[in-house]
Amino acid sequence: MKAKDQNQVKGIHSGQGIGKVGRILISAICGTSMMTVSSKLMSLIGQNFSEPHHLGKMISRLDPVFSKNTDKALGWTAHLGMGAAFCSVYSSLFDSGVKPNLKNSILLGLISGAVGMGIWKATFKLHPFPTSINPGRFYLQRMPAHIVFAVFATLSYRLLVQQKEEKIQSSPQCRLTE
């Protein structure tokens, strides 16, 4: 592949579709949404595991002037923000040569689950009015939830990168230089 084509693959030229930030945000939305769906499904055992619910409640307890809809929106915003932070790390790992495959996404989910558990523990400890949870169940549920997050974030990231590469390969510039 010629240098010009390599630069295109790296995303230096604009107009090649979704950029790195877009891939991170879309991956974060996919991963976070599926994580929340799985948490809601796991909530059927009797405890609310919904991350946006707990985040929204704690935000509203800090400033009770927010409406219930604002609490929900702020809870989702905080949760998506954390998802984007995790996806930024994943993207850097993938760019450095880690393959975005199922095995690695499960490993990333386990690591993210441990990190997420630590973040939640610190949040509940430092917050003046935390939501009430069964800590054993809540923290145990962090692992499968983060595995779901990592698998769907990785899958969406991988699909977006493949789509970008297919666009580049089919571009007239790439065909003219082959």
UniProtKB/TrEMBL annotation:
The keyword Transmembrane applies. The chain crosses the membrane at residues 21-45, 73-93, 105-123, 143-161. The keyword Membrane applies. Keywords: Membrane, Transmembrane, Transmembrane helix. This is DUF1440 domain-containing protein. It comes from Pedobacter rhizosphaerae. The lineage of its organism: Bacteria, Pseudomonadati, Bacteroidota, Sphingobacteriia, Sphingobacteriales.
